[in-house]
Amino acid sequence: MRRKWILLAPLVIGGFGLFIAIGGAVVQLLWNWLLPPLFGWPQVTFWQALGLLALCRILFGGSGGRAMGHARWKAEDKARFRMRMRERLGMDPSAGESPGQ
């Protein structure tokens, strides 16, 4: 099993590097194709595009997993949340859902 990981690790690292390089190239091409003609902004280099990609990932992407606030709610949790919101908003919690919802 250990030998398998030793052989597989360089492929995984290379694949990850290739994925990042393709992402940077796509960002660079899209930026240079759209933004200079539309808004007069300067073109970016490959490394600047990688920086933009990393910045967007940090600001908007999270960790990529479900652990960072994207957990699925159970039906009981949803019902409890709705009940509390109705109570806070002064709606009658026993009235049920309105027809439009």
Secondary structure layout plus pairing:
Layout: H1 2-39, H2 46-61, H3 75-88
What does this 3D model show about the protein?
Helix 1 (2-39) crosses helix 2 (46-61). This protein starts with a helix and ends in a 13-residue tail after the last helix. With 101 residues, it is mainly alpha-helical. The protein has helices spanning 2-39, 46-61, 75-88. The mean pLDDT is 84. It is built from 3 helices and no strands. The protein is flat. The chain is 67% helix and 0% strand.
Please describe the structure with a list of short key phrases separated by commas or semicolons.
flat, 101 residues, mainly alpha, 0% strand
- Mean pLDDT figure: 84
Unreliably modeled segments: none
Number of helices: 3
In which range does the helix fraction lie?
55-70%
Largest sheet, strands/sense/barrel: none
- Report the β-strand fraction as a percent range: under 5%
Give the ordered list of helices and strands.
HHH
Write a brief caption for the model:
The protein has 101 residues and is mainly alpha-helical.
